[in-house]
Amino acid sequence: MAAPSAAPRRLTGRSGGLPDRLFRSASGLAAIGVTLLIIAIGVMLALNSTEAFGKFGLGFITNTVWDPVAEVFGALPYIVGTLLSSAIALVIAAPIGILTAIFLAELAPRRLSIPLTFLIELLAAIPSVVFGLWGVFVLSPFLGSTVDPFLIRILGWIPIFAGPSYGIGLFSAGIILAIMVLPTIVAISREVISSVPDSQREAMAALGATRWEIVRRAVLPFARSGIIGAVILGLGRALGETMAVTMVIGNAQDLPTSIFDQSQTIASKIATTFNEASIGIQTSSLIALGFILLVITIGLNVLARLLVRRVTAGERRT
Amino acid sequence: MTTLAPVMDRSIASRLVRSKADQRRARTDRMMRGFSLAAAIACVIPLAAVIIFVTINGLGGLNLDLLTKPPRALGTGGGAASAILGSLQMIPLATLVAVPVGVLGAVYVAEFSGRRSADAIRFAADVLVGIPSILVGIFVFTFLVLPFKQFNAFAGSMALALLMVPVIMRTTEEILRLVPGTLREASLALGIPMWRTVLSVVLRTGLTGILTGVMLAVARAFGETAPLLFTALGSRLVNVGDFAKPMDALPIFIYVNARQPYPVLNQQAWGAALLLLIVVLTINILVRARSWGRRAA
Description:
heterodimer, A: mainly alpha, 72% helix, B: 297 residues, mainly alpha, MetI-like fold, 13 helices
C-alpha cells in the first residue's frame, strides 16, 4: 500500500455555514447510529429474554430438556452443540490457517502468494447456504461412507469418537465450519505477520538462521497475540454461523455424546424453530438463546480485536 | 513486505553445512516449508470442490424454466422466478439505504471525528460485522414484523441493509484515509465549503474504491439467508413491488428446496445455487481483479 503523499488532515476546525453544520451532524448521526445499533441489538435481546431467564433462572443454561408442550426450556444441548462444532472447526482450521498465513507472508514467492490470497478471498465469498447444500449432498455422504468409519475404527474406543455415523452430524458441521473460518484466520494472521518489523527477521538471518527458524523464533513470538486474535475471530464466526450448520448438523434435540452424533447449535435451533414458536415463553426462550450467543460472540470479538491491534498498532499511520 | 535476500541457497548450504545438527536444521526447514505449502493448497481444495460440484449438479437445473417460471405445487417442476425477482427487489432497496448511511458514517470517521471517537466507531463497526446475522434477523423481526403481524419484504431489506452498513463504512473509510490531505486543503483554500469539499473532492477521488466496497457488500447480501428467515420469510408466490408481503429470495429458495424430499426440487436448489454462485463470484472476481492487478504491478 502506497503511503499518501501527505497525511490527511482532519477537517476539525470551526465550520462556517448551516450546510456545513448539517452535513457534519448527518455524518455524525450515521456513525453514532452504527455504534448504537450494537447496544440496541443487545438491549432488545436482553429485554425479550427476561421472561425466560426470569422463569428458569440459571437453570436455563444447565437444563437439557426443550419441551414446548410442557413449557420447559433448557439450553444446554444447544450450547454444547455450538461449542463442540466450533471446537472441531478450530482444531482443523487453526493449524492449517496459520501455516497458510506463514506461507503467504513469509515463504511464498509473490507470483504464488498473490493468486493464492485471491483464491482464499473467493472462498470467503461463497454464501453459507451454498456450503450447506454442498455439505448435505456431497460432503456428508462422503464423510459418512469413508472418513467417519475409518476414524471410528481407529479412535472408536475413545467415547467421544464412538459410532455409528450417519454422515450428517457434529463432525460434518465442524468440517464445514473449518472451511468457512479458514479465510478469516488466514487473512488476519497474514496481516499480523506482515506487520512484524523486518529488523526482527534480519537479526535472526544475521545469526545464520534458516527461513523456518526466522519464522519460528523471530516472527511467531512477535505476532503471537495477533495470531491468537485471528483464531478467536474465526471462533466467533464459527459460533454464529447459521445456514450451513443448520443444513448438515442433523437438528437433533439430545445432548451429544459423540462427535458423530446429530446435534443442534444455538443458531440452528433459532433458525429451525423461531417461526413456529408461539409468542410467549417459547419465543422468549429462543431469544434468550440468541442473547447467550450475542454475549459470547461480542466478548470474543472485542478480545480478538484488542489482541490483533496490539500487534498491528505499531504500523498505524493515522 | 519482506525484502530479505535468500538466507540459504540450498546448493551452497549443502556444501557448507556439515554437522549433524545443521543437517537437521536444514531438514526441519525443508519440512516446515513443505507443510506450509501443503496447508495453502489445502485451503484451495474446498473452493475447487464447491465450484466443481455446484457446477456439475447445477447445470442440469439451471435452465430457462428455473429463470422464468414461478414455483409450482410441491414436486412438479416450475422454477425460481419468485426468488430471482425477490432478490432483485430486496437487494437494491437494502443498498439504497445502506450506501448513504455507510458512506456518511465513514466520512465522519475519516474527516470530522477526533482520533479517540474514530477508534471507537471503527471498533464498533468491526464488532457489528462479527455479530451473527441470525440475531440481526431477530432484531428486525421485533421492530418490523411483530408490530404488523405480517412477515414482509421491507423488513428483509432492512435486515440486509443492517448487515451491509458496517462493511461499506469500513471499506469507504479505508479509502478516504488514502485521499491526500493536500486535495482537501486546496479545495478549502479556494473557499469551497467543507460539505462540498467532501462531496465533490474527497468522495469523488475515492469513488472507485467506495464502489468496490459497495459491490462486495452487495455480493454478500445476495447470499445472506439467516436474516431473511424471520423477516421476508420466503414465498412460493411471485411478489413484484409489494414490500408489505412476504417475498422469496435466492438463498431462501435454495435452503427450502434442499430440505424437500423431491429430487426435482433438490435439482432446482442446485440450479439456483449455481446461479447464486455465478453472481457472487463474478462480482468478487471483477471487483478484486482490479486491486489484484494493482498489487501485482
